[in-house]
Amino acid sequence: MSNWLPDFEPLPDPEAVIAPEITETECRQCGTRVSGLDGRYACGVCGWVNDHSEGHRPLPVAEDDADFPGRKPGRARRT
């Protein structure tokens, strides 16, 4: 058996992924306790929704979605 080891290039470091954070607050309209992701909430009791700009992080752009029409296969995500 051969002791030859193939040459290989090291893999690049993986991109840091920040998981969404589950947050809680009171509904501004009816006072019900609501949970959301990254500070974005919707009340299931009265229908109140806070504005998307009140979230803790910017929302991803449509081009970051894997199902975005016209996305090139293997295209790196924008940061």
Mean pLDDT: 86
Count of helices? 0
Placed side by side, the strands forming the largest sheet appear as: 1-2
Number of strands: 2
Major beta-sheet overview: 2 strands, antiparallel
In whole angstroms, how far apart are the ends? 47 Å
Q: Which regions are unreliable across 5 or more consecutive residues at pLDDT < 50?
A: none
Region (Disordered): 54-79
What does this structure look like?
This protein is mostly beta strands. The chain has a domain at 19-53. 0% of the residues lie in helices and 13% in strands. It has no helices and 2 strands. It has strands at residues 22-26, 33-37. A two-stranded antiparallel sheet has the order 1-2. The chain is elongated. The termini are far apart. The mean pLDDT is 86. Residues 54-79 are annotated as: Disordered.
Concise structural overview:
By secondary structure, the chain is an all-beta fold. It is about 0% helix and about 15% strand.
